[in-house]
Fold each of these.
Amino acid sequence: MSTGFSTTTRRVRTRRGVVWLGQTCNLRCRFCYFQTRVATREHPDHPFMSLEKARAICSTLRGHYGNTAVDIQGGEPTIYPRIEALVAHCREIGLLPTLITNAVAMDDPQRCRRLKEAGLRDLLVSVHGLGAAYDEAVGLAGAHARQMKALDNLAAEAIPFRLNCVLAASVLPDLAAIARLAVERGARVMNFIAFNPFEDQQGGRTGQDVPRYSEVAGPLADALDFLEENGLEANVRYLPLCAAKPRHRKNFYNFQQLPFDLHEWDYASWSWSGRNPQRRKDGDLEPPITLREANHRSKLFGHEGYLADPSVSVEDEYRHSALIRAREHCGYSFAPACQACALKDICDGFHGDYSGLYGAGEAHAQELTDFSGPAGDPRRFIREQVKIVEDEDASWAL
Ligand code: SF4
């Protein structure tokens, strides 16, 4: 029987867009980047947008940006009242729909069946702990049991899924078990995401649930080895490259590497759909902009002549966008140790909020005898990683 995917080490740019329906959710995750917006009904980002607006955004992702897949997220997209109609629209226009979800509401088999019939491609399920630790982290008694029931339902309906796990301190004791869960339940991919407390977490952070990178490194390396042994693609996002064992550098994605993961977001369309008018119920959609135009709005690339500079390639535009996201949006910065590091040109350094909390003393310069120096290719390590390509993407991604 076909698995529905192949594997490859070829790295091409993603064609996946993203739409935020509104910050309405059935859980209250302690480490949610949008927790204020989720908890505050009056916040302009809180309510779900209309189906008409969501459809228009998705049509722009497909028609203007040429995206062939979309991550639909809320808040929690499975509780969006018109989710099946939106999924059906995406499928109809050639924008294969994924839901980024806690999956708790998918404990209802009928909901799973309806979404599959509407044209759902797959789910990216957030598993931030197991058992009572998960219930506590997400603020809902019984949530873990419901999530596990949802995984049963996905198997029964043959709906593919991948897993996401935020590396909060409360999650680390469960990391090995979550990796086992991914293998035993047949996840296609396992992602680990550094807990960098930004967006709504800014100001309210205590450090209580933010582990130091050096505390994450051991359990993470064990989980990555286990997943590798079992042939499961694993990705780590937003951790400095020196937090990786050399054998795991291929699994680490900073902003410069992200466009080469087909399950991550296209910086061009994200630069448009991530702006407030496209993330809110109220207000008209903005006209689409090019990635070059989006870059030109930044301090880094706002200089005269950038828009028409013929020496800037498309590849450059994506690297520039990566720099803007790291330096201007998230306040990443380099530590003194980074100045002597061979990976500096392809590493984001330390997240601004993290270094604000703990400093950047854990940075340690990396040496490479075979490294190409300042003009480092972001694919230098990730091109050694075996990744999946779903059958629908085989014609352009394999
Ligand atoms: S550039 Fe800095 S943060 Fe990145 S790997 Fe090198 S020492 Fe670590």
Amino acid sequence: MSHETTKTWAFPGGLHLDDHKSISNTHHVTRAELPRQLVLPLSQHIGNAAIACVAVGDPVLKGQRIAKGDGYVSAPVHAPTSGTVTAIDEQPVPHPSGLHAPCITIRVDGKEEWIEHSGCEDYRTLDASELRNKIREAGIVGLGGAGFPSYIKLNPGTSAVETLVLNGAECEPYITCDDMLMRERAGEIIQGMRIMQHALQARHCLIGIEDNKIEAFAALREALAENDDIQLVRIPTRYPAGGEKQLIYTLTGKQVPSHGLPLDIGVVCHNVGTAAAIYRAIVHGEPLLSRIITLTGSGIPQPRNLDVLFGTAMCELLEQVHAKAGDIGKLIMGGPMMGFEITDSHAPVIKTSNCLLAEHRRDLVQPPAAMPCIRCGDCATVCPALLLPQQLFWYAQAREFDRVQDYHLFDCIECGCCSYVCPSHIPLVQYYRFAKTEIWQQERDKQKSDAARQRHEFRLERLEREKQEKKQRHARKAEALKPAGADKGDIKNDPKKAAIMAALERAQQKKQQSHIQPKNVDHLTEAQQREIDEVNARRAAAHKQDQEPSS
Ligand code: SF4
Ligand code: SF4
């Protein structure tokens, strides 16, 4: 049976770019040198940052979990080698903001001493939930650059998965890490795909590879056993063929709905690197500790792909390929289209670092100043998501975030095709990123204020409830302590009530007595009484005189 299929569908827009791949894919992947220390950010994925579960001074073994996932969309972090935790603090991390973030620093002891671990030779003895748990515990996230926790994408719930797609397109210029992985570890990728197929119960398996990766295609074809139902598909080399929605359309002719997921059309898509990581986790019991990263660009004398432990400082890697810090004019993590600039080369390699593109100082050209939009429409012609980039730009610039969403901002994959062709050199993608960040922030603020309002309403409800309960308690008490005479029959028959009523009556009498004020006219002698009577008589006579009209 042939593993190849030729039927493909052409997605709209896109660009033919110089790929610059041959700069870095002529050497075998080599292991990067073991660094003296590793700095592991707690957030190397989409979702909540992991929570550190070691303390400063703790010894750690290779593969030991040092931070646990926080909630459903999160992934744990493991020690990439043995050593001692020397700090848990804020360090520079690879992020477009250039901000620092919480990290665990490990001083490497050089022994590479593993924690006890074991794999499962036959993944078919495990059910889908066991596989997902192992993949989750191994800290595996999408290695194509997105960093979404992989176990979530392996949980289709009640949806049926028609097709499992592996993304081997690697369409962005310069990057060759997936290409080299497919050439050198094709067997691991195929095994990983089978594990995923078993977990998803997917009916069809497709691997999409751009047709400029001839060696990778041949390696995968060789790794496929006879009568295997996994199909290899050569797809035309056109950027961004490796975008998830574009690849799915190219391979299946099905469109992922706006605001929807591939699962909505019965498809699940993973990167080839993720498949290899899943194989290592399930069959060898190894968590995700390293990845292949492309070091390329005119600032690097020996471009190549290195297998690098997470936490290795980028500047140390650059030294290993003989790059001089003073020569590098610009350092980008990712490719030239979708990557972002690294402002501090001490930032570490993380799970989503697929490429370090270093531009030599002499090749650095200042981007031309942005000019007003001339409404040429070129941006719309190349947009693979069929958006209207020009309108998105206007509304993003005017901060009209409702309108920008009406124009499907969140369908934008930030591929950069529109910015690339814009004759006015408008940095369109930067405007879209800005708008997305603002909308997310507004959404977060709204959620916070909703939560605060809900808390306030709950408090008012609780106070009102307590007030009513208190009122009822008092009413019950008053009922129980009704005054004497009420329900006499009951009281007579109930010695407890009778005793209470007697005590109450006594208390009332005492109270009444205490209100009687002694008078100084009590217990007078006869003489005193006479004297008082005389005074009163005089007072009455005087009063009468006052009442008579004067003549
Ligand atoms: S390509 Fe640039 S100038 Fe042309 S319509 Fe789009 S934003 Fe305007
Ligand atoms: S960056 Fe967004 S708007 Fe521009 S071409 Fe790509 S998908 Fe379209």
